[in-house]
Amino acid sequence: MAVVFILLCYFQLSLALQYSDKFTEELVLKPLVQDQIYAHFQFTTIWNVDARSRDLFQSHLFSRALSEVIVRHNVQELHISLTAGLWNYETWGYPIVDSAPGAEVWVWFKDDTNDIDTNWKQLTNSLSGLLCASLNQIDNTNSINPDISFAPTGIISNTLNSSFVRYATLPREIVCTENLTPWKKLLPCDSKLGLATLLNAGPIHNTRYHSLSIHLRPICRNAQCDLASIELTQSVDLVYDFTILGTRNWSLRKLFGQGIMNSCPLADTSTIYVETTNNDTNIFHLSPTPDEYLISTRGGFSSQFAKYVVKERPMTIAASYADKQMYTVNIPPPLYANQYKIGYGQQKGGLVTKIYNNHWAPIDVVVLQNLPWYIPIYLHTLKIISNGTPMKPQKLIYKPGKMREKAHSLELMLRLPAKSTTSIKFYFDYVFLKWQEYPPDANHGFYIGSAIISGHLPLGRNYTGIPQDGSTYASSFNASRKNYFVQIRTEPIVITLPTPDFSMPYNVICLACTVVALAFGPLHNITTKRLVLKVNSDNLLTKLKKFGRSLFCSKKL
Amino acid sequence: MMIIPALYSILLILYVKCDSDTKALERFAENSKGHTNNWAVLVDTSRFWFNYRHVANVLSIYRSVKRLGIPDSQIILMIADDMACNPRNPRPATVFNNAKQHINVYGDDVEVDYRGYEVTVENFVRLLTGRLQPNTPRSKQLLTDEGSNILIYLTGHGGDGFLKFQDSEEITSQEMADAIEQMWQKQRYNEIFFMIDTCQAASMYERFYSPNILAVGSSLVGEDSLSHHVDPAIGVYIIDRYTFYALEFLESVAPNTKRTMGEFLQVCPKRDCISTVGVRKDLFRRNPFQVPITDFFGSFRPVKLLKNIHNETINVITSIEEPVETRSSFRYVEPLSF
Amino acid sequence: MKSHLIIYGLAIFVRVFLIYSDYRENIADRIEISTPLNSFNRILESYYRMSIGVDPYSSDVLHESPLHLHFYKHIIENTGQYLPLVFVFCDVLTAYLLYLFAKKYILNLRIEQYINMNLYLKHLKDQMLNVSDNEAIPLYVTVMYLFNPYIIFNCVACTTTTFLNLCLATFLYAICSGSVIIGAVSLAIASLQSLYPVILISALYLSVLKYQNSMFKAVISVISCISLLVVFIFSSYYLMGSWNFIPQTYGFILQVSDQQPNIGIYWYFFMEMFEHFKELFICSYQINVTILYFIPLTIKFRKDPVLLGICFIMLTGIFKSYPSIGDFGFSLALLPVMKYMYNCMQQIFVSIVAIITTTTLAPILWNLWIYWGSANANFFFGTTLAFITAHIFILTDVSFAHSKHDYLLKYGNDRTINGQPAKLVLG
């Protein structure tokens, strides 16, 4: 016989508070101009609560783990991305969400935060635990606070003060299943139901580019914008290569390893969009038939989408191409950039950022260089050359770094002439570190993070981003604005700093001290003793001579 | 839409078998005396692709302890390099223990707590002794107490009396022993099962002097530990012999097993391992053959589902006042406006 | 006079030729010549940063005092493309000051010899300075300075060591005659720039004491030098508006936080040092170069403040945290004034050969390490060690020879005691 005690406590909360959040999931599939297909997952949770009210713990769909982090560290906006691979702007156009290779974090703290540096350090520590990434390696030596490049994407009520923003990248951070696992746990349906079931570690890491991101910001709740909500966007961006897949005829099953089993019951909407804009050149046939075809006209360019609504039953989408493949001429987007290193040897080097403006009118951009402390730059060597003619920046903000303490940041405001290639070049010295400051694989090299070029595009060509006042991908349909904001990340750079011989410490200490002693000994003697004449006493040499002579003599005898 | 009220429930089940056998109750109390929870610290100290096998080793043990019931929050996994998503891995996001790809030891649900450059001697010793930076997240802390049984598994390149970390520093056997003594003095463990797969592994536990430690090493002092086999597709050795056979044994273990630590210590005889598996029992107070393997490799607690459930509902809060939100004029900031 | 003109003309020509040749940049980039302390590139960078409103001391770019920075700023702004000529002019001026110094010093020595003639043995006339030395030695010094490749490269690279050398030459000239004002001012400026010359203050004191024969004036000279230094530092503070520059100048010199290789011993030592021993070794090394020999050498050379000054200049050149070949070139140029004790020196030949060898080897091994990747840091470190050792031998030889020479003049060449062979030893 068993005696059972059960104690159950119900906390029944009022209805109004309960249903103040909603969750939407979207998947965008976009065949790119070459042999790639771009997949973008977007999971958006909007919670109608003012982030300034400290009670963020009674959540329904919003991740409690995240709300603890943002309350504890007084965060207003949080942007994290973990990326492997480099987005190829020149041929792929613009991604829906930009992110730099490796880990990238930028945060706006609330304007009543006292000690930003401490909060920043603590925040990155918490995030490293939350996402299993080495974000705890972020501290003042590799973070900057840019003035212009990172304005808050969400709403603010006070005046803007750029001292509350922090930005850091870890270009070497690897991204793998151990990051995806905790990332998926932040979703309301986890990875059990809905679009998130497609996120299987094997297939999504077998891609040319994969990026996980978390963006959290306050947004307007109503048209008057006198109430605020919190928006949490979790997105995954993937670029599949048909060569890796082995076929151009893709399907959800081929891309993600399985189809969708069921929709997430917590989601308000669950939609899949397949871009069919280029379907007239490279014709593919979609099965099953889409629920709807949409045409979005944005910034003078229109694109077509096939829309599927995920229902409570298993589904998959497959595309089959016509046999003949058409190769189209790639028209690069209006603005893209490269970065590379110049010089040889390990004494002196230079960094060049090339920005291409293909638009017929000038474009204003802001270039942000984020340089770790071990890249001491010579700013007087800065040369900006646009189509062969030297150019002056409209504004130059340089925040010098400090050895072992602070990273360097350089922001340049430029007006790129129409149809131009602008190169920004400066030189730096290779720094010699102490032997314990080198990582275990010292010869692998040290990373310089991506340069970030931010600008407003006047046209919507290649532009896929979500408007600032929108939250879902659907809100980008027909969202014509006066300009379109893009942020382009260039390649990170690896430089091999000269290394000492790591096995030498004791030898070097002994040798150098011997040399010092070579000076000390004689000087000590000369200053403390006087010259005297002394009778030659038997020294070792004469003793040996005598001994030798005696031996010689005895033999003779 | 359906309205489901949020349920915050504290479920407390006291499970007592009243009449039949008080002996069982006593035995239960005896067994669980001191031992209340299980932790695992699994460390791979080797970087670089050609040390793939060490990552496979540590993930094999990770897979087993997770399968046998230790939750991720109580496993501290330290991996010095990324093999799964390494560009050289022809099968991204997988690490196999066998060229025939029997078991993907990496799995789909893995949480690595310390990775890459964070795997250092300092971090390892700090983790064991609990002397961490104040801001360290919970997942990077070993929050053990005097009731914790800890499995410590180390793999990497070692020699007589040391284990190399990332080919740039090393932990000596004395440092290891002192760290464990400090844990004992701070009452951070009940029992430790120390397992190490490296060359001259036995030298690493020879200096231990704290009580309640059972130690096993893949080879004796003066012996090398050998790897099992090569995967031609990967091009490197993919697992070490001792861990391979240990995993084989653990795969046959179910969470409700009756198998004992004594049996586990007999894993990999010399004909399989080529090296001699070293065991140290003198600090351990129990007979390994009477210690269930789940005392270290799992945290299985027998739970019985009861049919005759009596429900009682207490409404604690019936309504909550909606906080009045202050209205203020918000605005979006145009990017690059300054 | 004609020979002088030829010498100066040729020296200027060589410098100007190199400055306006393509080699200039390569020379200026050599780590043996430009160190973090004296690199002209850093001056240009600081000037640029000042012009865009960034505090040059907020970063690790500049390690010289604000007064010097403003001085360079003036030069940069007012000379334009003729800027390197300022360095050539300073170099030539230094050479001329050294000439004047040598002349005066030799004259002083000869006067002393004349006064002490009765103490010396008669047959050792050849050990003493004679009339021809009056002209010859200063000329040697000039030539040794102007055509010393170290000094030429130093000038071509436009390092700020040129100005330090100018100050030190002025100082040497001042202590030959016991001039209070010139001595105090030049020493204060030199100390403001690179800190280590501050130990020369005892030479100033002794020289004023010796040549002006007044304790009061000697003390005044020390006080005025120190107070000048304090005034300079405070005016630097008012110029910059903060004390930021102290950790970046003197803090930087003392802490050796930049491990860029140079020809000294610090860089590799502190690159390879264990972090927890760093403070200990920094302190012992800095004490070694400043305080350790300060009192013993002052007492030893109390009768010859100029030689004391030369020894201190050599010592700081060898053991300063960021030495460049400009410092070594300056001490080498002073060797001819010790001509009278050449035959008491034992290691000078070996040392000079070692210096020439290491000077040739160092760039080769540097290139092997940094550019071709076929050698490592140990090779370059080895040559710098040998280079430093050779200079140490010269320094110890000079101080030893001084005593020996004194002994020689008084007691002659005889090395026997009661007919038994004997040795001259320190006891």
UniProtKB/TrEMBL annotation, chain A:
GO terms, biological process: attachment of GPI anchor to protein
Coiled coil regions in record: none
Lineage start: Eukaryota, Metazoa, Ecdysozoa, Arthropoda, Hexapoda
Cellular component annotations (GO), alphabetically ordered: GPI-anchor transamidase complex
Pfam families in UniProt: Gpi16 (PF04113)
Keywords, comma-separated and alphabetical: Signal
Keyword presence, Magnesium: no
PANTHER family: GPI TRANSAMIDASE COMPONENT PIG-T, GPI TRANSAMIDASE COMPONENT PIG-T-RELATED
Provenance organism: Popillia japonica
Taxonomic superkingdom: Eukaryota
UniProt signal peptide: 1-16
Keyword Hydrolase recorded: no
The protein's name: Gpi16 subunit, GPI transamidase component
From TrEMBL, chain B:
Pathway: Glycolipid biosynthesis; glycosylphosphatidylinositol-anchor biosynthesis
Molecular function terms, GO-annotated: GPI-anchor transamidase activity
Signal peptide bounds: 1-18
Keyword terms of this UniProt record: GPI-anchor biosynthesis, Signal
GO annotation, cellular component aspect: GPI-anchor transamidase complex
GO biological processes: attachment of GPI anchor to protein; GPI anchor biosynthetic process; proteolysis
InterPro entries: GPI_transamidase (IPR028361), Peptidase_C13 (IPR001096)
Any Pfam family: Peptidase_C13
Catalytic residues (positions): 157, 199
Keyword Disulfide bond on entry: no
Family note: Belongs to the peptidase C13 family.
Record PANTHER family: GPI-ANCHOR TRANSAMIDASE (PTHR48067:SF1)
Name the UniProt record assigns to this protein: Peptidase C13 family
Protein's organism: Popillia japonica
From TrEMBL, chain C:
UniProt cross-references to Pfam families, sorted A to Z: PIG-U
Pathway: Glycolipid biosynthesis; glycosylphosphatidylinositol-anchor biosynthesis
One cellular component term from this protein's GO annotations in UniProt: GPI-anchor transamidase complex
Subcellular location: Endoplasmic reticulum membrane
Name the UniProt record assigns to this protein: Phosphatidylinositol glycan anchor biosynthesis class U protein
Mode of membrane association: Multi-pass membrane protein
Predominant localisation class: endoplasmic reticulum
GO biological process: attachment of GPI anchor to protein; GPI anchor biosynthetic process
Presence of keyword Endoplasmic reticulum: yes
Signal peptide annotation: none
Family, per entry: Belongs to the PIGU family.
Species assigned in the record: Popillia japonica (Japanese beetle)
Key words, A-Z: Endoplasmic reticulum, GPI-anchor biosynthesis, Membrane, Transmembrane, Transmembrane helix
Spans traversing the lipid bilayer: 6-23, 82-102, 137-156, 163-189, 195-211, 218-240, 279-299, 306-325, 345-372, 379-401
